[in-house]
Amino acid sequence: MSSSSVPNAKPVKTTDLHIGAAEPGCKKRDPILVIDNVSRSFGGLKAVDVEHLEIPRGAITALIGPNGAGKTTLFNLLTGFDKPNTGAWMFDGKPLAGVPAFKVARMGQIRTFQLTKALALLTVMDNMRLGAKGQTGENLFRALIPSLWRKQETANEAKALDLLARFKLDTKKDDYAASLSGGQRKLLEMARALMSDPTLVMLDEPMAGVNPALTQSLLEHVLNLKSEGMTVLFVEHDMQMVRHIADWVVVMAEGRVVAEGDPHEVMRNPAVIDAYLGQHHDEDIGEDSDEQTKHVQDIKELLDDER
Question: Which of the four, 14, 26, 139, 167, has the lowest number of CB atoms within 10 Å?
Fold first, then answer.
């Protein structure tokens, strides 16, 4: 994402989130998610090995790190899409280890995916309806009596229309999700997540594969989540975006948390520089054009900006 895609208005940052030094595993003043000794191995590879991590409530936290650092695997564990080898975690004071994904969502912890999970052969409106929780008509016997669920269905549809209008998808409500562009599917997935009135929204690379024309809109929606009282935890590789909207940054490398802190301080942290630059110490960054090197170059540019 180019710097021109970053919103011009500087968002209001939430500060004073931690207690003591900003270091891996530091305590937060009001954590919504607390993770202890969570590990996940695939064969001989330990993809996640998080000793302790707290996510601050009411803030936007970015989870960054090189490719293969374990970020998405950690997301999968925390949301019930995978099971850890060890560890436990608490969401809003409730233990979540072993809780299946659909129950995690009902408790208010919602996630989106790097590769969108919109149901392609359903309309946009039907996708939105599926996001509402506690639907009376989901019960087989109650579904046979429309008077029991029609009022709730009408309210859900009104809520869905309002959200689609906010995400500029209201004109697509009767279209199949398969007809949407990649960026529009990202917007639909985020809008559908809000149908359940979540407390914590977890976004896995929300900007990945998005047309630059929709990047600005997505950024604004992420910022709006916080202004509406939600906590946001997102995985992202675009360092300009991270520095612009994140209140707090957690850095992973080789499955471990290697740094935490304010975005500007984290970019200067030797552990972060080593995580991104370690494999490039002996080569000319300008000669390699792969995605990982782009992230390295982004960090270099940010460090130059800070000087």
Answer: 139
- Strand 18-19 and strand 45-56: pairing? unpaired
Reported as a single tens digit per residue, the pLDDT across 104-163 is: 999 999 998 877 777 888 999 999 998 888 777 676 777 778 777 788 788 889 999 999
- In angstroms, the CA 6 to CA 240 distance is 7
Quick one: which of 127, 124, 111 has its CA closest to 202? 111
- The answer to whether residue 130 sits within a structural domain is no
Q: Are 275 and 115 in contact (CB under 8 A)?
A: no
Q: 176 in a domain, yes or no?
A: no
Q: Domain count for the chain, please give it.
A: 1
Residue 273 binned pLDDT confidence (cut-offs 50, 70, 90): confident
Q: Please give the structure tokens belonging to residue 251.
A: 């850095």
What is the domain extent for residue 275? Answer: 3-106+231-306
Q: Are strands 231-235 and 200-204 parallel, antiparallel or unpaired?
A: parallel
What string of DSSP letters covers 62-110? Answer: EEE-STTSSHHHHHHHHTTSS--SEEEEEETTEE-TT--HHHHHHTTEE
How far apart, in whole angstroms, are the C-alpha atoms of residue 41 and residue 47?
Answer: 6
